[in-house]
């Protein structure tokens, strides 16, 4: 496949411009995308929290499912996108196009399959995700529309990742933010004006995700981007081998996160619906804060992929340390802010529920104790993933919200009860930070040896 002038210009820009400028330029649209997505994710919880305590708890239960489908979407999305960025760095556009379509259509097919299975086994699945008998009717109402939207949600994540890794974060931002802004507008209309309650929040999400899907499909291939084509959908062994190498860390991270969240909901459910609702709110708050870290890291990823593919390892390292420095400073500021204003932040959701505020503030303060490490852990995981260190990247990604969290939850709940449950995530964060240090050091040393 012939390289155009626009594509050659993109290659030169990605491999010669100062890495700090490149990361910042690519991070801005990603940060905007992540922030708006985080706002609409938090909007669901904010609006339904005003109805009753079961509604935000139901949203928290379904979030385990959302993490599950995101895990599969990121497996195909980041798996194909990691290869795409390296292939473009090596000027192999034909292989990049084949991986793009293979990743997209594979996720679309699997999304339809998952949605059908969800309708068939709905109640059993919701109980497995941590729903109590009192939450179940609310969870069922929210889940139906999410299931319908599953193929579109998954495929949108795939396209978003592929566009970002090509250095087209602005185009990706247009598709994702359009749907997110629509969701924020539709939420109060469906929930309060049409009196649909928690089901209205789910319907707003479904419609918005479908809109994002259509826009992203239309924008794919614009400019110097790689378009999607059924002709390029070639489910070959080497395609899935590359997708697995690049996407397994994401699958491990998000997949185990889904299991851990469901396990946390089950443990918290012993202490009542308020405990589940409090944890759901705290998770949304920390996810909102972490959106900037993820957005900045997403600005780093294409710079890392292009330059690693081009063999410019010193630029990869400079980009890594610049991104770590900025995100760590931000996380330190946010951890101090969250610790000081914990009660006021939780009270924004349910100002008259004093037990929920007490539990939520405690959980948020625990998280703030180690939140300053999140920047390093997040960027390290992206670094390992983009440099194709599959085993180390998968181990690290599976730690924070996966097997380490599961172990901490198990022992914490048995020895410390509810306090052990609400403090499990920050303990897991601290352990994951310690795991990340030797992993990053070993890869940096390997790259030094190559040079």
Question: Can you tell me about this structure?
Answer:
This protein is an all-alpha fold and 451 residues long. Helices cover 85% and strands 0% of the residues. Helix 2 packs parallel to helix 7, helix 2 (19-49) packs antiparallel against helix 10 and helix 10 (273-309) runs antiparallel to helix 11. It starts with a helix and ends with a helix.
Give the gist of this structure.
This protein has helices at 5-16, 19-49, 54-89, 93-120, 122-128, 136-165, 169-193, 198-219, 237-269, 273-309, 313-340, 342-347, 354-368, 374-386, 390-422, 424-450. The protein has 451 residues and is mainly alpha-helical. Helix 3 packs antiparallel against helix 4.
- Helix percentage: over 70%
Secondary-structure element string:
HHHHHHHHHHHHHHHH
**Separate helix tally:** 16
The whole-number mean of residue pLDDT values reads 87
Return residue spans where pLDDT drops below 50 for at least 5 consecutive residues. none
Q: Which oligomeric state applies?
A: single chain
- Describe the sheet with the most strands: none
Radius of gyration: 21 Å
- Share of β-strand residues: under 5%
Spatial gap, N to C terminus = 30 Å
Write a concise keyword list for the protein shown above.
451 residues, mainly alpha, 85% helix
Architecture blueprint of SSEs:
Elements: H1 5-16, H2 19-49, H3 54-89, H4 93-120, H5 122-128, H6 136-165, H7 169-193, H8 198-219, H9 237-269, H10 273-309, H11 313-340, H12 342-347, H13 354-368, H14 374-386, H15 390-422, H16 424-450
Helix pairs in contact: 2-3, 2-7, 2-10, 3-4, 3-6, 3-9, 3-10, 4-6, 4-9, 5-6, 6-7, 6-8, 7-8, 9-10, 9-15, 10-11, 10-13, 10-14, 11-13, 11-14, 14-15, 14-16, 15-16
């Amino acid at each position: 496949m012939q390289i155009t002038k626009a594509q050659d210009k993109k290659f030169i820009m990605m491999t010669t411009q100062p890495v700090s400028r490149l990361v910042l330029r690519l991070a801005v649209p990603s940060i905007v995308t992540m922030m708006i997505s985080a706002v609409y994710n938090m909007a669901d919880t904010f609006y339904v929290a005003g109805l009753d305590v079961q509604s935000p708890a139901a949203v928290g239960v379904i979030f385990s499912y959302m993490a599950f489908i995101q895990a599969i979407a990121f497996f195909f999305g980041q798996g194909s996108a990691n290869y795409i960025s390296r292939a473009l760095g090596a000027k192999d556009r034909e292989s990049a196009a084949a991986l793009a379509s293979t990743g997209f259509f594979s996720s679309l097919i699997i999304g339809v399959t998952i949605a059908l299975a969800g309708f068939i086994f709905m109640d059993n699945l919701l109980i497995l995700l941590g729903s109590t008998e009192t939450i179940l009717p609310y969870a069922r109402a929210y889940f139906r529309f999410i299931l319908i939207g599953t193929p579109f949600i998954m495929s949108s994540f795939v396209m978003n990742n592929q566009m970002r890794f090509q250095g087209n974060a602005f185009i990706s931002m247009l598709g994702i933010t359009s749907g997110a802004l629509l969701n924020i507008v539709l939420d109060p209309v469906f929930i309060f004006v049409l009196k649909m309650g928690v089901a209205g929040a789910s319907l707003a999400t479904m419609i918005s995700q479908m809109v994002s899907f259509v826009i992203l499909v239309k924008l794919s291939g614009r400019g110097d981007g790689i378009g999607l084509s059924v002709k390029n959908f070639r489910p070959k062994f080497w395609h899935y081998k590359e997708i697995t190498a690049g996407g397994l860390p994401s699958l491990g991270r998000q997949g185990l996160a889904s299991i851990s969240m469901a396990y946390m909901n089950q443990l918290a459910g012993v202490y009542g619906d308020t405990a589940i609702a409090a944890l759901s709110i705290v998770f949304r708050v920390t996810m909102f804060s972490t959106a900037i870290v993820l957005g900045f890291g997403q600005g780093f990823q294409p710079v890392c992929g292009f330059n690693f593919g081009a063999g410019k390892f010193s630029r990869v390292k400079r980009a890594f340390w610049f991104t770590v420095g900025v995100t760590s400073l931000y996380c330190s500021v946010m951890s101090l802010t969250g610790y000081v204003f914990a009660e006021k932040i939780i009270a924004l959701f349910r100002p008259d529920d004093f037990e929920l505020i007490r539990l939520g503030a405690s959980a948020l303060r625990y998280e703030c104790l180690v939140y300053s490490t999140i920047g390093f852990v997040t960027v390290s995981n992206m670094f390992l993933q983009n440099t194709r260190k599959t085993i180390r990247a998968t181990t690290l990604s599976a730690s924070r919200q996966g097997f380490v969290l599961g172990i901490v939850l198990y022992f914490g709940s048995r020895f410390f009860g509810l306090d052990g449950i609400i403090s499990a995530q920050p303990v897991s964060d601290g352990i994951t930070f310690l795991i990340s240090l030797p992993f990053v050091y070993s890869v940096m040393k390997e790259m030094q040896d190559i040079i």
